[in-house]
Design goal:
Structural class: alpha+beta
Number of strands: 10
Order of helices and strands: HHHEEHHHEEEEHHHEHHEEEH
Strand order of the largest sheet: 7-3-10-9-8
Number of helices: 12
Oligomer: single chain
Strand content: 15-25%
Radius of gyration: 26 Å
Largest sheet: 5 strands, antiparallel
Helix content: 40-55%
Distance between the termini: 57 Å
Length: about 350
């Protein structure tokens, strides 16, 4: 059954009042929040109907009502009016970013921390590697008699390295030989196409040097996979301890957030401007009392990752969503500049 305009206004007022106060909403308080006049009896009747339809819940110790997860969903999908950002709010978000460090990974990590401090929620920034990203340079650097560092720089500015301990003495001649060999066969190659078969073929080409350099080729493959898989940075998980409504599940939730594969599946968007997953809509039991809000960002006009947060169901969606979208746009613009810097 569809909601009448009056019931929509009452449900929206209940949701927004509950977000502000965290307390059950009664008919007397609600009457002061409505933009039109209606009798207390009518308000109580409409609240009773909304309760029966599952949009509201009644805490055992209160005569007031609180929105159910279904009520929040109806509000977000149909009733919410997002609050445009002021110039001061835009400047405040702009000031969160550390643009002195052009390293994309550092920028993503700093962004997650800044967003957590700004929203008082757990936050995630993720990146996906565009299919156009290539190997810009591979370098073997001597770090000791039997130790080298394999450094890889990708065309999107991402830098990765891996320490390798060798069973031979590292000489300047060997370093020079391997760097020429690796860059001749890997430089400019698409990151996603570096397969185990290709690495094996390089090992065969090395001939008598195969035994010496195969561990380094394996390290290069692992670095390519690491870059291709993208990054996930979590910040502010302990901020969830501040919310009383999350007390029951918060420790299980913090444990869950340490698992990268779960974060990766949770914070994935395909063709959506933003997504809100409310409480029991989440597949994970640990998120039953939490909401997940996420929005994508672009780099160079292409989808590049997701910015999201986890907080109590009672967060100010109308405020959070435009703030999150502007934050994501600013992050994408900075990463675009960083990408162009490394071209």
């Amino acid at each position: 059954m569809k909601l009448s305009e009056r019931k929509k206004a009452i449900l929206a007022a209940i949701v927004e009042t509950y977000i502000q106060t965290g307390e059950p909403v009664g008919s007397k308080l609600l009457a002061t929040k409505l933009s039109f006049q209606v009798s207390p009896a009518t308000i109580r009747s409409d609240m009773a109907w909304l309760f029966e339809m599952g949009y509201l819940e009644q805490p055992h110790t209160s005569a007031g009502r609180v929105p159910s997860h279904l009520g929040f969903r109806e509000y977000i999908d149909s009733l919410m009016r997002c609050k445009p950002l002021t110039q001061d709010e835009r400047r405040e978000i702009d000031s969160l970013f550390n643009v002195r460090n052009p390293d994309p990974d550092k920028l993503l990590e700093d962004a997650a921390e800044a967003l957590s401090d700004y929203t008082h929620c757990a936050t995630v920034t993720s990146s996906i590697t565009p299919k156009t990203v290539r190997i810009r340079r591979v370098e073997m650097i001597a770090a000791g008699q039997n130790t080298v560092v394999i450094l890889m720089i990708a065309s999107n500015g991402v830098i990765r390295n891996k320490i390798c301990r060798m069973d031979f003495q590292v000489t300047e001649k060997l370093v020079e030989f391997f760097n020429k060999f690796a860059n001749a066969r890997l430089g400019g190659m698409n990151i996603a196409t570096v397969s185990t078969n290709y690495i094996n073929s390089l090992s065969i080409v090395l001939g008598e040097y195969s035994r010496i350099f195969t561990p380094l080729l394996v390290a290069i493959f692992e670095l390519c996979k690491e870059i291709n898989d993208g990054q996930y940075y979590l910040s502010g998980g302990t901020k969830l301890l501040e919310y009383n409504e999350l007390n029951i599940l918060v420790r299980d939730l913090l444990t869950m957030l340490e698992k990268r594969d779960i974060l990766q599946s949770l914070f994935t968007l395909e063709g959506e401007d933003f997504r809100v997953i409310i409480g029991k809509e989440n597949q994970s039991m640990e998120l039953a009392d939490s909401s997940v809000v996420m929005t994508p960002y672009n780099v160079g006009g292409e989808p590049a990752g997701t910015v999201g947060l986890i907080g109590p169901v009672r967060i100010d969606y109308a405020k959070i969503i435009p703030h999150l979208e502007y934050f994501a746009k600013t992050l994408g613009d900075l990463l675009t500049d960083t990408f162009e810097l490394h071209q």
